[in-house]
Amino acid sequence: MPLEEIVMSEGSFITHEADEWYPATLERLEEGEDYGFGPTIRFIIQIDGEDGETWALASQKLSPRSKLYGWVKGIDPALLPEVGEPLRYKKLEGRRVEVMFEAGEDRERVTKIRAEKVAAKKGGMQEKQAAAARAKTVRPDEEPF
Predict the structure, then answer these.
(1) Residue 32 falls inside a structural domain
(2) What value does the mean pLDDT take over residues 64-75?
(3) Whole-number average pLDDT of the chain
(4) How far is CA 43 from CA 5, 9, 64, 111, 128, in A?
(5) What pLDDT score was predicted for residue 11?
(6) What is the helix (H) or strand (E) element at residue 41, kind and residue range?
(7) Around 47, how many Cα atoms within 13 Å sit in the side-chain half-sphere?
């Protein structure tokens, strides 16, 4: 899919296609600034094949409707704590993820984070099952006399 040309103000930048998933590593999490809505958490992300780090910011409020909850659930639902328990941020660090960006007025921002989707390996169980099914199928030109 070709990149769209987006006219932006001076000093702005867009480097990723919107609505595309980019493979990355969630390097670490840091406590972010309070922008008037409570404390934040900064996800420091290394996009595969890119220099420098990308970061994503979410409120530290963890509820089923929060951005943080959605990101943690997308990475590993087993890491979501029970009500009243703390989120173990360190267990997120080093995880392979995919991120999606959205263009804003003057910059892009990470909007979604999920666990990296792993493509089926050749020789894997699904491939072996498909090969076995093909082997059982007799084509008309191969029918015995």
Answers:
(1) yes
(2) 95
(3) 80
(4) 28, 26, 19, 12, 39
(5) 45
(6) strand 40-47
(7) 17
| Domain total of the chain | 1
Which phi and psi (to 5°) does residue 59 adopt? -65, 150
* Secondary structure in 3-state letters for 51-113: CCCEEEEEECCCCCCCHHHHHHHHHCHHHCCCCCCCCCHHHCCCEEEEEEEEECCCEEEEEEE
CATH of residue 88: 2.40.50
Assigned token pair, 30: 């840091």
Q: Is residue 28 part of a domain?
A: yes
Residue 114 CA to residue 21 CA, distance in Å, equals: 9
What was the pLDDT predicted at 22?
Answer: 96
Domain-located, residue 121: yes
Neighbour-count burial of 99, counting CB atoms closer than 10 A to its CB (0-12 exposed, 13-18 middle, 19+ buried)? buried
